[in-house]
Amino acid sequence: MTLTDQQATSRRRSVWEVGKTALLLGLTSFGGPVAHLGYFYEEYVKRKKWIDEKTYADLVALCQFLPGPASSQVGIGIGFMRAGVWGALAAWLGFTLPSAVALSLVAVWLQHHSWGDAGWMHGLLLVTVAVVAQAVWEMARKFASSRLEATVAIIAAAAVLLAPGAWSQVAVIAAAGGIGAFGLRRKNVALSSSAAGIPPSIRRSTGLTLLSLFAVLLVALPLIRTWIHSPLLALFDSFYRAGALVFGGGHVVLPLLEAEVVPQGWVTANQFLAGYSAAQAVPGPLFTFAAYIGMAALGWKGALVATTAIFLPSFLLVLGAFPFWHWLRRHPRFQAALAGINAAVVGILLAALYDPIWTKTVKGPADLAFSLGAFLLLVVWKWPAWAVVLVSFVGGWLRAWLG
User: Fold this and answer.
1) Domain span at residue 189?
2) Half-sphere exposure of 373 (CA within 13 A, CB side)
């Protein structure tokens, strides 16, 4: 066997190993993006030793700077560094497939069973209040702690409530970025001289091409959608935009997607919230909620298109940003703009907590008490979200059965 053949065989084995490892993580990683990063650290850094701790920290920091699902982006980056583009695809597919399949099956089941007034379904809807309230609470403490950041958050919430719609949220995010760039101050982040950093495995020209493709698709897809009337193309556009513009993690995709898919008639508001609640109970990334909506709207083709579209920006951004990461993290104005965006994200999620979540689910004192109990389990007792969802499912059923 020649050296080239040996290298090709080694690369194929690496891709297979990346896929198997990511699949195991996709089957067992409960608890949301922060927990996912802990699982990744234990598996990729401590156990497999594919990258060192400093490189892992640098990659996590990069993915926190970018829109999209941070844990999935970290997995994509590790897969790429381990086995190239095919490794990145294997890492994403393994981590994403279990929850995407599970939520697609949930969508199929709900389409063939009567559930509109079911007590267990109302329990799932009510736990969504607690889950999103927890996300607002934790993000506000982190991203809206100063007076200016809190002001941006409240104004953002008011703006998207008074002018609902996906594009109003985009405008709020853009305005907050501008306010942050010129109104907030962030200290220059110095790189440790001993830090390994992200390996320069992509040329700057390739990075620019990927970032340009990201921007072109963001602008061109809505235009193409107006010329070509295809349900699958419309679905791809909506989910690509959601994946490209969501800062702050999986919970923040809720308001942007709700504004995109419910007015289109792809799912009802109750179907949307029920699927979002079900997404809390499965392992893997919350962004696989896209598979649920795609399946409910357009069957298996819709699930495939929606899932691909919402994660595509992550591939383009992570790989495209690799060559420029050291410059980005040293740039104070970029960091200040990101701080403004994160504050606006808190406000957008706060608005979503009121509408559609509160308005569609809390119908009286008993509903509020039920949601407060779920919030207590999540925030005070630190129960995992999947366990609270299970308890709420059973509690909703018992509440309806007992009358």
Assistant:
1) 100-402
2) 15
